[in-house]
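anyone seen this seq b4? input:
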Amino acid sequence: MSAQKNRRILIIDDTPAIHQDFRKVLAPSSLASQALDAQEQALFGDRPPRPDVERGYEVDSALQGREGLDMVLRARAAHRPYALVLADMRMPPGWDGVETLARILEATPAVEVCICSAYSDYSWHDVIRRVRKSALRLLRKPFETREVLAAAAELTEKWNRLNGEAR
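predicted toks r here
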């Protein structure tokens, strides 16, 4: 078993700005983080490191569901699976989030998934039934940084606990 934890996250959303927002939270650039840390230290004195800087998730992006499924399959074939997929609910003109996650989970049932959306065309019961994952997580847009970090930490840790040796 590899001692390194899987921190690979795939974002599937048709809005490029959403990808940038998630990257700012999940994979902040080291220069920006260092500058912010220096400013915080000047203002507040010595403080423990920020959790989002320590996490350093590896984040990839897909603009449509079919592209996301292809990326999940390639990652699995390369023995570098994603621990978590964050998917938007509405992604015209292609698959919606429910269809996307259902197909991804059919191909790679071990991946953890989270819907990130402001609204849904389905009831929550229908989403769970179609996606076939009873412990499905929802992040509402616009999202809060702490909620994204909590979901990423919880779900990637869950993946590592359940699948760490299967990598």
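Helices lie at 16-26, 30-44, 51-55, 65-77, 97-107, 124-131, 145-163. The mean pLDDT is 82. kinda curious what u guys think
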